[in-house]
């Protein structure tokens, strides 16, 4: 809720209607006049694009991908941009412009909408992305779809491209977002700075845009972001490349804060199966590993070799696995 | 449901999970290899774009924007593209590429998903749009968001630009989509070819891409598509242009098939307040009116002058009105 705008916390979307809501939205975003572009307010945005553009989209649904019981609208706004920016980062690209659709129950308190817009505005400023248009509809359940345009200098890094012998590496640390979800869902009592950090990784993930651009420059042969769990995303990378891999769990950069979840799930399991870390998983010629580790050292996210590309098969500590065994499936009954 | 794929009609989304569903989706769309682009299957699509791109997005939610009780998944797929293409058409542009997010209950029968994909594939072929990526999530309620890229030669036609003295014109006919909705919601008994035509305008609207390009060529000074009702969309056009208008209801091209709705709502009211016709509403120098009527004559949609741009105010048959009185608001309580 916004201080100085107390009315928004008590009035609902239905009170102001679509026209009123659009006014609230318009107030929050810039227009393209500084860029010679046309943003929101016409039938479509008019954007300056280069010869080549990146385009991706993701949808977040309340109760599935986020929960307003333990995250704010602001977190949802931030994350809805972050997951898309992560896809652009995984191509070695830079995000530029986005459009957003919001479906929400008419009973939604305007304070939640305003908080959501705060998160969008904050994320847009953080990553220099223009929110250039959108659409709103009623719904039984809140959901947000973002479509993100990006740009890339030279050739993007695709999922296909890994070669046997390449090192498999990951930025930052893994499992933190899943640990944060465990904490939010009531898995821990009390709080601590370390648990807050895990929660932050779940609610306010940081896509690795600078790291992705560095890895492109360093000749990464394939890249994907870790959004559905290392196991599943690694399988996607290897499938696209037509290669296999051998991973050592002892080498995984397990989020050090997971140790704060006393009696919680195993750190290695979270690192392998938990999604949403938005780290980058890539393959790179082993001869460039040292250079990459130096380039991605703090203040960047860090860079860890977790295994090697092989001819085929997914080996985990020497045992053959299936990627699906480790990943998250939004839709399958369980 | 697809003949020859009987299993899809009885199995649910939960039976196959996200991975299985993605396989079903991938089968249905091309890839960008023929275009030197990368479509679905990587983190983001890689697209050839010109110096200037159009970008728009729309969301359709079950129970609000469509109802599977009276429209097929195929209709939803078609319409989800059509409403976005209409936005591109209203800039005088041509649609090129789209991304789609689909949220749906895991209990959804795969036949519905397959039918939805049929509609997407059919619409993509009809308008030569590549579906280059997407995302799927679970939800309590089905919803579809499409983001559409387009291109435009020269300057797009914006909403701002109408000048006092310009003729206000509309393509095709108005009110048919609202009449079709009335019929679908049980407002008529029995069926007839004329009622089927109204239903077609509701479920399978035809965006006016060729007409939009012609109107741009002819120097239309402002343009918008009629998606929320003539009253509301006209108000938007006039507000953006800083002008007013005088409309004569006797000049409105009321859909002739509305006469088949015996005892139904008044045709002029539907033409003014019903949305979703996806006709183009524009302003044009009065000296070019004859030329435009000739250029848009059948087999194109036709072109009718409905009034004139004035200095300010919205006059309907000489009476001052508010645009909001005539339009559709998705969210306001009523």
Description:
- The structure is a homodimer of 334-residue chains.
- Chain A has 334 residues and is an alpha+beta fold.
- Chain A has 10 helices and 12 strands.
- The relative contact order of chain A is 0.15.
- The longest helix of chain A is centred in the middle third of the chain and has 18 residues.
- Chains A and B meet through helix 2, strand 1, strand 2, helix 3 and strand 3 of A and helix 2, strand 1, strand 2, helix 3 and strand 3 of B.
- Strand 1 of chain A pairs antiparallel with strand 2 of chain B, so a sheet runs across the interface.
Mean pLDDT of chain A: 90
CATH architecture descriptor text of the largest domain in chain A: Alpha-Beta Complex
Rg of chain A, rounded, reads 21 Å
| The CATH homologous superfamily of the largest domain in chain A | PurM-like C-terminal domain
Element order, helices and strands of chain A?
HHEEHEHEEEHHHEHEHEHEEE
Quickly count the helices of chain A: 10
Report the end-to-end length of chain A measured between terminal Cα atoms: 37 Å
Domain count of chain A: the total is 2
Strand content of chain A: 15-25%
Oligomer: homodimer
The best one-word shape of chain A is globular
